[in-house]
Amino acid sequence: MSQSQTAQAQHLPVATRQVGRLAQSLMAMTLGLFIVGVVGFSHIDVIHNAAHDVRHSNAFPCH
Amino acid sequence: MNTFRSIVFSSVIAGFIVGLIVTAVQQFGTVPLILRAEVYEKAAEHKHEASAPPHAILVHDHADHDHGAQAWEPKDGLERNLYTAGANILTAVGFALLLCGFFSVRSGATGEPISWHEGLMWGLAGFAVFTIAPGLGLPPELPGVPTAPLLSRQIWWTIAVLATAAGLGLIVFRRSMPAAIAGVVLIMLPHLIGAPELEHVESNVPSSLSHQFVVAVTLTSLVFWSLLGGLTSAAFAYFDRPASA
């Protein structure tokens, strides 16, 4: 973020900045759940075999 | 996108470190037990194939072979452990993104940077939500132990995780008696419904091995979540400084 953008963000009302922060946090959490979902829950054989020991070690349902 | 960038930076750094540490811990805890169980699993498969008539082998290969007879899998040894390390790092980064999202909302609301101790508490909540709660109904399973159909277990696992997270949230953040009671009921609900299980489980994997595995998985997970909570919160407090200053 450039300096002018930062200055602009600081002039926004507090509620607007909070919403921006909330939206970005939710985006990051969705990305995180997507990554965990692919590694731990995908039914694709190749992903299952690559992550096999991790699925068992994390007690994700496997096989 | 300042907040998003701080979350991603902190999560990648903390996830990478925790993923590597947990890979090392697993080499002494869960992985040797998985390898021992696979000896029993393979012995059972060979016995099954040897005693079955030829047409039954075909049926077995098409319908019943979980690992996928033709699918690629990493070679035992270094290659397999490298993929395990990669999957551990990705899992840790994924859960770190989730934790960090909460840290960001919390520190945004209070105006205070998140402390490593509060991060540790969130990590322990992750341990309760993602390991303890689903593990009560679906204990960690070794390869070669028959289980109910995969999709039904994945659905129950997800329900247990969501109910426990929502229940803990009600108890911790809505400081009222009705909310606390609703929270406890919500946490119990998936267990009262019951996890999918087979009526008869016959396995040649010894039950002592399965028990050791439950202990190893739970302890490894405790290390994972404690480290992830502490490290992710410390990293996020560092990267998020300009925004909260």
UniProtKB/TrEMBL annotation, chain A:
Transmembrane parts of this sequence: 26-44
Any matching Pfam family: CbtB
Alphabetical keyword list: Membrane, Transmembrane, Transmembrane helix
Annotated InterPro entries: CbtB_put
Domain of life assignment: Bacteria
Protein name: Cobalt transporter subunit CbtB
